Amino acid sequence: MALHKLLVDDFYDDTYKLIAIHCGLEDYRLAYLLNQSLGLRLQRKTEDLDMQYLKASYSIFEWNNVSQYVTWNLVSNVCKKEEDSLYSTGLFQTNEKVIKTLNLVPEYKKVDYFIKISDEIQNVNEKLILNKLQNIPHIITSYTVNPTKLKSKDHLIF
Fold first, then answer.
1. Domain that holds residue 104
2. Under a CB-based contact definition with an 8 Å cutoff, are residues 145 and 19 in contact?
3. 44 - beta bridge partners?
4. Is residue 5 part of a domain?
5. Cα(69)–Cα(120) distance, rounded to whole angstroms?
6. 95 belongs to a structural domain
7. Which of 39, 50, 67, 137 has the fewest CB atoms within 10 Å distance of its CB?
8. pLDDT in tens, 74-132
C-alpha cells in the first residue's frame, strides 16, 4: 500500500507584492499621503498587529478594493518600547529605562514601513506604484522586496 504525505506548506500559496518604504513620518501621515497619491482608502484597523511572543505591536492600515480584488496593507516595521535596564553598575543598582526597538521583519531593520499588496488577478503595476512613491517628498526611498526570500515571512500573514 502506498503511503501519501501532505505537507501543510503546500496549501499556503498567497501571492502578494511587498514594497519597503524608508521615511521619518508617523504612520497616519504616511497613510494619508499614500491615499492621496495612489488613490487608496487606507484606514487604521481597530487592533494593531500584535506579536505576543515578541510582546510588540505594529500599526496596520488596510483597504480592501473589492472591485479590483486587491487588498492593500500598510504595516509598520518598527516598534519602540520602554523597558527596565538589566544591568547594575558597582555597588548601586540603577532603575534606568531603556528604549528597545523591535522589527516585524528583522532582515530589514532600516525599513520603516511595508506595503503589502495582495492581488488575486495580478493586475497591479509595481513600477507605476514605485514611481508615484518616489514623487512623495517625505519618502526617502522605496523598493520591492521578494517575500519568498524572507526568513520571517510568516510575520506578514494577517
1. 14-156
2. yes
3. 61
4. no
5. 6
6. yes
7. 67
8. 999 999 887 777 666 666 666 777 788 889 999 999 999 999 999 877 788 999 999 99
